[in-house]
């Protein structure tokens, strides 16, 4: 029996993978270390979506390789040689090779390096797991995607779309609700194309999970706008269920159709705009989260101006802002790159605009009173979410997974503040 230290980075799917890895470790006769110092072996679930993230992964690999090490997740699948340059002895475990976890751990503990990067997992549903947050069930509904974005490494890591069956997902979610989870996250590389390979789609899945008995909420994870034309009307109907957070994460990336075409995104600015209008028109207070990349190699001043214009028109509640960075193995990495100072200047403009809009949107919630589900510990305090998935902070004692009626009294760019209503 060995003590294994597990740490994870990146998207919710990476954290779901780390939960499964931890579950397999405990089922496989080992234990989870409570600290890196206490471990016999270190395992890191990595992300490689941006340069800054990849650099952080390299930093952590250097720190963790003082003991037997397994590098799991997207980084070794997309950049195997880079990982091996910084740790020649580390074993490698791909994002779709989790069922090999125990074999890789046992071999690594005995000094034998294993490279397990082939896609062998037909599904991640039903595998044992140790939850990072007892209130939240992260359910991966698919692996891979149908997109061909030329700036993204995710396709290199996770490959083509493989959707998991609705019945299996519903059984997993039902089990987790019975185990006390008050929130279900439906996550994948791209929820928008879920089911297209097995004759169904996201709208049927959301409706099926919404029919599960119990007092819980559903967060529908990231979906690319290109599929909205196909599923939008039915998705609007599925979101009528009171268990579904009125929240969408739809990454537009640019407000310029020219840049979107160069990125091979498969959608237009109008598709994103029409989606935000449709959901806000139907549900009123509805949260929109999006991603913006500034400084793509072909982005002109006019292209950037169109991005700023689209942000002002659609007023997203949250913008995940990235300065473009060339990722090895992608088409866009071979293009002529923009001057770093130009990219930095554009990033600053979007950052300030995003904060301004976030504050304006949040001010609309002052005086609102309603149900809040407290689902997360942040900086030592319990943080909740209202029906529109707005983060809510209070200064009163409350338990994780508990609900309370809260009145909003203050706001910031990052969320809402309030007090429990009598």
Compute the separation of the termini in Å.
52 Å
Shape: globular
Biggest sheet record: 6 strands, parallel
Strand content: 15-25%
Instruction: Give the overall average pLDDT.
Output: 95
How many domain modules?
3
Assigned CATH class of the largest domain: Alpha Beta
Largest sheet: spatial strand order: 2-1-3-4-5-6
Helix content: 25-40%
Which radius of gyration do the C-alpha atoms yield?
A: 22 Å
CATH architecture of the largest domain: Alpha-Beta Horseshoe
Name the CATH superfamily classification of the largest domain: tm_1862 like domain
Class by helix and strand content?
Answer: alpha/beta
List the helices and strands and how they pair.
Layout lengths: L2 E6 L3 H16 L3 E2 L8 E6 L4 H14 L4 E5 H5 L1 H7 L4 E3 L7 H9 L5 E2 L19 E5 L1 E2 L10 H5 L3 E2 L2 H13 L4 E5 L14 H9 L6 E4 L7 H11 L8 E3 L7 H7 L5 H15 L3 E8 L6 H14 L3 E6 L16 H24 L5 E10 L2 E5 L5 E4 L8 E9 L4 E5 L2
Parallel strand pairs: 1-2, 1-3, 3-4, 4-5, 5-6, 7-10, 10-11, 12-13, 13-14, 17-19
Antiparallel strand pairs: 8-9, 15-16, 15-18, 16-17, 18-19
Helix pairs in contact: 7-8, 8-9, 9-11, 12-13
């Amino acid at each position: 029996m060995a003590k294994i230290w597990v740490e994870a980075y990146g998207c919710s799917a990476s954290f779901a993978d780390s939960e499964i890895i931890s579950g397999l470790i405990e089922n496989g006769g080992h234990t989870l270390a409570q600290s890196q110092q206490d471990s016999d072996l270190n395992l890191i679930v990595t992300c490689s979506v941006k340069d800054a993230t990849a650099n952080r992964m390299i930093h952590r690999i250097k720190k963790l390789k003082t003991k037997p090490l397994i590098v799991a997740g997207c980084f070794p699948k997309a950049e195997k040689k880079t990982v091996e340059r910084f740790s020649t002895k580390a074993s490698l475990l791909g994002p779709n090779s989790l069922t090999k976890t125990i074999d890789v751990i046992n071999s690594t503990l005995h000094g034998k390096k294993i490279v397990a990067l082939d896609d062998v997992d037909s599904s991640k549903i039903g595998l044992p797991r140790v939850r990072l947050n007892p209130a939240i069930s992260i359910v991966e509904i698919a692996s891979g995607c149908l997109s061909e974005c030329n700036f993204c490494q995710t396709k290199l890591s996770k490959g083509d779309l493989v959707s998991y069956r609705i019945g299996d997902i519903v059984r997993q979610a039902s089990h987790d609700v019975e185990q006390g989870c008050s929130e279900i996250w439906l996550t994948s590389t791209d929820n928008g194309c879920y089911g297209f390979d097995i004759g169904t789609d996201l709208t049927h899945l959301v409706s099926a999970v919404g029919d599960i008995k119990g007092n819980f909420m559903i967060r529908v994870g990231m979906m690319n706008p290109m599929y909205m034309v196909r599923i939008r009307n039915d998705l609007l109907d599925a979101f009528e269920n009171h268990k579904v957070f009125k929240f969408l994460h739809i990454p537009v990336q640019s407000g310029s159709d020219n840049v979107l075409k160069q990125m091979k995104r498969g959608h237009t600015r109008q598709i994103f705009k029409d989606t935000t209008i449709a959901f806000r028109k139907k549900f009123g207070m509805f949260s929109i989260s999006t991603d913006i990349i500034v400084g793509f190699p072909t982005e002109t001043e006019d292209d950037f101006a169109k991005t700023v214009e689209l942000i002002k028109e659609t007023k997203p509640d949250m913008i995940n802002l990235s300065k473009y960075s060339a990722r090895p193995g992608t088409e866009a990495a071979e293009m002529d790159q923009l001057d770093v100072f130009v990219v930095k200047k554009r990033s600053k403009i979007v950052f300030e605009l995003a904060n301004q809009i976030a504050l304006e949107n949040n001010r609309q919630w002052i005086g609102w009173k309603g149900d809040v589900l407290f689902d997360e510990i942040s900086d030592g305090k319990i943080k909740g979410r209202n029906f529109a998935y707005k983060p809510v902070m209070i200064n009163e004692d409350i338990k994780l997974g508990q609900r309370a009626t809260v009145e909003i009294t203050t706001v910031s760019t990052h969320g809402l503040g309030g007090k429990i209503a009598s």
